[in-house]
Amino acid sequence: MAKLSVDDLATIRQQRAESVAFTDRTYCLICGGTGCHATGSIAVKDALAREVDAKGLGEKVKIIETGCNGFCAMGPLLVVQPGDFFYEKLSVDDIPELVEQQLINNQPVERLLYKDPVSKKVIASQNDIPFFTHQMPRALRNKGRIDPEDIHDYIARDGYLAAAKALFELQPEEIVEQMKISGLRGRGGAGFPTGLKWEFAKNSPGDVKYVLCNADEGDPGAFMDRSILEADPHAVLEGMIIAARAIHSSKGYIYVRTEYPLAVHRLGIAIRQATELGLLEDDILGSGFNLHIEIYQGAGAFVCGEETALMRSIEGKRGMPRPRPPFPAHKGLWEKPTILNNVETYANVPQIILNGGDWYASVGTETSKGTKVFALSGDVNNIGLVEVPMGTPLRTIVYDIGGGIPKKRKLKAVQLGGPSGGCIPAQLVDTPVDFEAIVKAGAIMGSGGAIVMDEKTCMVDMARFFMDFVQDESCGKCTPCREGTRRQLQILERICAGSGEPSDLDTLEDLAVVIRSASLCGLGQTGPNPVLSTLRYFMDEYQAHIVEKRCPAKRCVALLKFEVNTDACTKCGACFRACPSEAIEWKKKEVARIEKEKCIQCMTCFEKCKFDAID
Amino acid sequence: MEQAQDALHIQPPLWPQILIMEDEMSVAKGLELVLSEEGYTVDLAMNGRSALDSFDRRDFDLLIADLRLPDIDGMEVIKRVKHRRPDTGVIVITGYSTVPSAVEAMKLGATDYLSKPFTDDEFMSAVKGALDEQKVLHAGAAQAAVAKPAVTVLEPLPEDLQQVHDIMAQIRQQFSGTREELIPMLQKVQNHLGFIPEPALEEIAHFTRTPAASVYGVVTFYEQFRLHPVGRHIVKVCRGTACHVKGAERILNEIETRFGMSPGQTSDDRMFTLETVACFGSCAIAPVVVVDDSVKGRMDPSKTSEVMAAVEPADLDPNQS
């Protein structure tokens, strides 16, 4: 394939625009993210293609498998354009009706359209669904709109225009200047100003420098980076070209978790296509600038998300952090000046260069500019990817976008920042998403995992869960982190098992302070956060576990009685039908009873009972 | 990793739980002190009723029982406790020891019978004896509960080792042998064989001019690498936050009881290897189980068993294979 010039980019855009404007084609955008693949979107896509062929609509209908649409819980998803009709939870059996009605008769199929989980009303157009209307897609601007495996789709949406501008119109210092004006801060968690990082690396002496992309998205509950790589891989590549130009680098690595096979696959295709068109490797767009990018697959160590550990890992060593300084901008990969930015950070770069730093900084707060992507999950009606301006209150994310808490339960907390973060309690749900405000509330912005927890979540158990994760992933280099997190886990396990003592709370706090101040890297420095934030806001739950030997949320098995509360039991028999070990005695119009000898404490009856009648 | 996994599933917890049923405060406090100095977790009950209430609330590994109590006869309490939880250890302590009462206590399943006064040493050796006996009981029960014994570590098959030669030949063609290629090479071996056999590890060490110990250090540092063969199918259970909130641990328990595997283990028919993953990033469809490369969302314990049973239906039915 011929290498492209800047003019060719414009021609491709023009041709694409004309083909959309002058043909009455219908576009079926079917989501091909990991979530939708798991719920069967590939079979739905194949059925749709077969049906479209059978009805002779091949010319009129174009089926595109997009990357992650973002509204993952509703998959498999299909958006039909024009009209932006939003179909959810499709199955193969729905396809004939859909083709007949929507594609031939132009009549939307009401029963398959999106239904609001709260109002139960049908909302036909994607643009009217509250989940989308409150969002401001910037890093996610192409999600669900383009075929991530076709570079022309990306070019048609202004792709590689920013790279061209950076290569032909801007000097490296001008790129850095725009990045600084934009106020973009690293989206991986720490929030270091990106422009500043690039400036350090640019000014570091040396012929060999590296640009690295951190796609080792390890925080449990975070899937922003995976979705961006699956939906819009070229945006990340373009961001890396601009960064490389700014710091004079000609070699880049993308460090991707091995748990993300689809993202690796699509990145591989994107790099190949970009190389074929002369947008990567030697003489990019005829500018004389070179950048070679390689994918490096991680091997399943959480600590490799830390920058110095990640670099060790690329060097083929055990991924352990080292003290800083020297900072990677001076001595990074193989001791050469290196910048490492996160996937979401890079995805923002092309738009900043194209529209200017001022444009990016026009939304957000004083210290946090632009937008932030969150992976919203847990006990919330609408689960998926959410991009909002900085400064948006958490309440908007949970209630307006997320549609509130299911089963009429109450919000208890929102966990931000994964194992390095903390739980923001319901009473602080008006906290704006802003680096500093979130820290003040006891969590961290982190990479963007936002897990909503309802009143049935035990906060002591959550602390135990995160501590289990941290002690497991501690690389072992710093003793306070290696040993301290293990002690914390033991104490939390003891409390969950009903053997906690009042003095445990002080020990937990003492350990947290030591681990925080005596660990080299972010893992240890932030690891005790989940314990500290739950101690701060949910002391009453710790007390209930320790003093009353009771788990208020009924999650800690050792503290449950496995008895039916005869006053609350409505005699419905739901527990009886659900019990896998036939340990429940129940007859119509009678209160259920649990036979302790047969009970295997599997908790199924707790899940099934709608009346909270099992203690 | 495995230790943490194990710890999660031990309930009641790691420290033996002991209940002292004794109406005389000074005696009760004295015994509590001796036991807690040894690291045991101790609860006190001043009469029979409150002892039974304590057992209602939770399990104890050991009951230290006085016989003369203000309300219920101590022997009756032992009888009820043993009826409910037959594997609870019991030590009788009494100031009114008689042969018939000792016989009765032993018949009810008491491990030891101490007449007051006794020394701390006598008491501690009785406690340790009772708890040791219990450990044996527990181990027996745990074994009986497991449907199929799991093989923790599989040995390589001869055909695995034969393949090493071919894979290494490919690797020598594809890579140049620099240190930074170490992890990709190891990944390639594992992609082919499911694990990294020792001869491959040594050859890669030689190829990259790296000490074998360093290569071993890398292999053991990263969660992904395995040094032993795996089953024909790999079942990965996500233990991310969203999956945890939605019941991933119950899925692990189900696999453990039904297939007899803990994370990291392989079923004895070499069919499945069970692993956990910190997060698949598919939180929208939590809880997630990945069987081989196929991601299954919104799982529960019974769906997981169904999915696993459907992987190789013929293999599960001996009549067909």
Layout: helices, strands, pairs:
The complex is a heterodimer of chains A (615) and B (321).
Chain A: H1 6-22, E1 26-31, H2 34-38, H3 41-54, E2 61-66, E3 78-81, E4 85-87, H4 95-104, E5 114-115, E6 122-123, H5 130-133, H6 151-156, H7 161-168, H8 172-182, H9 194-203, E7 210-215, H10 224-231, H11 233-247, E8 251-256, H12 261-276, E9 292-297, H13 307-314, E10 338-342, H14 343-355, H15 357-361, E11 371-378, E12 384-389, H16 394-401, E13 411-416, E14 422-425, H17 435-440, E15 449-454, H18 459-473, H19 479-496, H20 503-517, H21 522-526, H22 529-537, H23 539-546, H24 574-578, E16 584-585, E17 593-594, H25 604-608
Parallel strand pairs in A: 1-2, 7-8, 7-10, 8-9, 11-15
Antiparallel strand pairs in A: 1-3, 3-4, 5-6, 11-12, 13-14, 13-15, 16-17
Chain B: H1 2-9, E1 17-21, H2 25-37, E2 41-45, H3 48-57, E3 62-66, H4 74-84, E4 89-94, H5 99-107, E5 112-115, H6 120-145, E6 150-151, H7 158-174, H8 182-193, H9 198-207, H10 212-221, E7 233-238, H11 241-245, H12 248-259, E8 266-267, E9 272-277, E10 289-291, E11 294-296, H13 301-311, H14 313-316
Parallel strand pairs in B: 1-2, 1-3, 3-4, 4-5, 7-9
Antiparallel strand pairs in B: 6-8, 7-10, 10-11
Q: Care to give the gist of this entry?
A:
The complex is a heterodimer of chains A (615) and B (321). With 615 residues, chain A is an alpha/beta fold.
**Strand order of the main beta sheet of chain A, please?**
12-11-15-13-14
In the residues of chain B, how many domains can be counted? 3
Query: What is the count of distinct domains of chain A?
Result: 5
Q: Approximately how much helix is present in the residues of chain B?
A: 40-55%
The biggest sheet of chain A, with number of strands, parallel, antiparallel or mixed sense and barrel status, is: 5 strands, mixed
Measured by DSSP, the beta-strand proportion of chain B falls in 5-15%
The structure class of chain B reads: alpha/beta
Report the end-to-end length of chain B measured between terminal Cα atoms. 36 Å
Mean pLDDT of chain B: 82
Largest sheet features of chain B: 5 strands, parallel
Quickly count the helices of chain A: 25
- Helical proportion of chain A? 25-40%
Biggest sheet of chain B: strands side by side, in what order? Answer: 2-1-3-4-5
